[in-house]
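Protein Entry — a single chain follows
Next Lines — sequence and tokenised fold
***
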Amino acid sequence: MESGTDGRVLRPSLNEKFRPAIGKRILEQCASELLTGQKYADANIADLSKRLAENVRKELIDLQFPKYKYLIEIIIGEQRGQGARIHTGSCWDIDTDSQVTHFYQNDSLFCEIIVFAIFTYS
């Protein structure tokens, strides 16, 4: 890690940076494992989205990128053939911060997973 004169970390090294390609594989794997065969039901969507977010979080933490915080957003809706478009935008340090998304759908539901990986300087 690159440090300033006051000892604060200024930038992560190349090996310590979050990589969206690795994040994308994690999102695809977590979505497939938990959502394959699931049917949309209002009663269980809150629990399903929470479990999915926790699974994604655990996998991201296991990457052991120091000084990164993750914001995970899960959007689940009923699949009725209507389609859905979801867009996110952000403003941050393009050298250290990143985002990754994955869209999953089956015959019953759709799910958009969005992860913001934010480097903390403290």
The mean pLDDT is 88. DSSP finds two helices and five strands in the chain.
